[in-house]
Amino acid sequence: MSKETRDKKREIILASALTVMTKKGYYNSTMDDIVKESNMSKGAIYHYFSSKKEVYLDVIDYWERKYTDIMAEEVNKQKTAMKSLKTLFKTFGEQMKKDPTPYECLPIFWSISRNDKDFKNAMQKVYNRFQKAIELIIETGIKNKEFKRVDPKTAALALILNIEGIFWFTLYKSKAGDASVYMDTISDYILNLYKA
């Protein structure tokens, strides 16, 4: 079996696990649910993963890789730090409209992380990398005099916490608008505070 075929099968398993988690949560889902969703045999799933926990830990990496590529592609096209951050917010809103599944799973991962060290460590690594990426954009904006002298770590954390507001839209319906409107409005508020 070629590496490409193995990678494709692994991606099918991870995408299926993400769907199962959205429908059933972590604790109520089983490997049999992933087998059924993926239309693969149980043996095929166990060829790649030894346990449900291992599958879902890999889902975190899968989710991060998938969305990092999408975000990076859009953000890297921008000429200024301000436009890069605005694009980051906009892309989150657009991706949620296209496929809310990963966003619906994030509160589940947060919940698991409270009680499981492995999930907590995996999620912490994702947040650390994301925060560092935003810090670098902010540092570029400060250097280019687009932004005031703000603490990049604190500013990045403020942006992340507001981006996470998008997950509220996966849990509750709002009469105030949709996720894209929220992301556009909140990014304008925050980024205007940073402007030089």
Gist of the model:
By secondary structure, the protein is mainly alpha-helical. It contains 10 helices and no strands.
Keywords summarizing the entry:
196 residues; elongated; 78% helix; mainly alpha
Structural write-up:
- With 196 residues, this protein is mainly alpha-helical.
- It has helices at residues 3-24, 31-38, 42-48, 52-75, 81-98, 101-115, 117-143, 152-163, 168-171, 179-194.
- Helix 8 runs antiparallel to helix 10 (179-194).
- The model has no long low-confidence stretch (mean pLDDT 88).
- The chain is built from 10 helices and no strands.
- Helices cover 78% and strands 0% of the residues.
Give the helices and strands, then pairings.
Elements: H1 3-24, H2 31-38, H3 42-48, H4 52-75, H5 81-98, H6 101-115, H7 117-143, H8 152-163, H9 168-171, H10 179-194
Helix pairs in contact: 1-2, 1-4, 1-6, 4-5, 4-7, 5-7, 5-10, 6-7, 7-8, 8-10
Distance between the termini: 55 Å
How many DSSP-defined strands? 0
Sheet having the most strands: none
What is the CA-atom radius of gyration, in angstroms? 18 Å
Helix and strand composition category: mainly alpha
* Low-pLDDT windows of residues: none
Order of helices and strands: HHHHHHHHHH
The proportion of residues forming helix, as a percent range, comes to over 70%
Strand content: under 5%
| Tally of DSSP helical segments | 10
Q: In one word, what is the shape? A: elongated
Mean pLDDT: 88
